[in-house]
Amino acid sequence: MKKIVLFFYIKIALLIYALIGSLLFIFQDRLLFHPEAINQDSSYQFNQPYQESVIPLDATTKFHVVHFTVPDSIRKGVVLYFHGNRKNIGHYAQFAKNFTRNNYEVWMIDYPGFGKSIGALTEENLYEGALQLYMLAKLRFKPSQIIIYGKSIGTGVATQLASVRDCKQLILETPYYSMESLLSRYLFMYPLNKLMHFKFPSNEYIQKVTAPVTIFHGADDGVIAYSNAQKLTAHFKKVDEFITIPEGTHTNLNSFPAMQDKLNSMLRE
Questions:
Q1: Going by DSSP bridges, is the β-strand pair 146-151/213-218 parallel, antiparallel, or unpaired?
Q2: Which of 5, 73, 91, 188 lies 20 to 30 angstroms, CA to CA, from 251?
């Protein structure tokens, strides 16, 4: 009798395990990304000069880009900005001033399903869209004038791009070691490498980045653990830096003078 009861509970546990794994596989994209689409012919109301463009990847996938501009006479270069997993460019436009005030243009790209971008949201498409953005920038700027910037989930895209193309600097705000390492803290019992649609192995890509790398991370980050990001330092070059914001969380790093001062210092060089 005890064996029958034990077998019953094991069967139930396996069913629950399989159900949760199936739901994770099916709904992971919705858990990972929280886009906000807007009408294609709508207008942004940014309080700084900007232009818009579209990068067609194929017949169904198009990346929308907002270029926050500075006058030609003072322009030093361009920042290719890969934002986080929420809303669209309108949510992140406020951060463009970190760079335009230092005479750098900022080119922000929306991922498929975000803002005016359309098409398939896949890891491969994100990498290809980032590459096309870089190639567009290279028509006007030298690699020594191009800064690649990633925020949160965008750090994976930014690191991959910097691993295959030259740039002046790679700057990562609240990055992760890899998506697998980030989720394994909670879902260690699953074969995440096989289940996950988005792997973003930043730990592998950062080893191929030849440009200087600067990381900003808050010690109180409740989304991407500080310890997870800190693991990236194992692959640092001598010139790379990890800037800790002691009271920083996942969303408030820009409010700290330590980050603003460091950005200003880097962009003045």
A1: unpaired
A2: 188
Q: Which residues pair with 218 in a beta bridge?
A: 245
Residue 66: DSSP 8-state: E
Whose tokens are 């980045």? That residue is 209
Please, are residues 174 and 224 in contact by the beta-carbon 8 Å criterion?
yes
Residue 215: closest CA among 197, 192, 232: 232
Cα–Cα distance for residue pair 251/32, rounded to 1 Å: 16
Distance CA(174)–CA(202), nearest Å, equals 12
Q: Are 241 and 213 in contact (CB under 8 A)?
A: yes
Taking the chain, what is the end-to-end CA distance rounded to the nearest angstrom?
76
pLDDT tops 80 at residue 134: yes
Taken in order 125, 179, 231, 228, the sign of the CA dihedral is: positive
DSSP 38: -
**For residue 30, how far is the Cα from the chain centroid?**
16
Best-predicted range by mean pLDDT (4-8, 36-40, 170-174): 170-174
The number of CA neighbours under 13 Å toward the Cβ of 236 is 15
Condensed to tens digits (0 to 9), the pLDDT of residues 96-133 reads 999 999 999 999 999 999 999 999 999 999 999 999 99
- Round to whole Å and give the CA distance between 39 and 89: 13
Alpha carbons 196 and 194: distance in angstroms, whole number: 6
Q: Which of 193, 174, 186, 188 is closest to 232 using CA atoms?
A: 174
Q: What is the DSSP string of 125-190?
A: HHHHHHHHHHHHHHTTS-GGGEEEEEETTHHHHHHHHHHHS--SEEEEES--S-HHHHHHHHHTTS
Handedness of CA 166, 98, 50, 269 (dihedral sign): negative
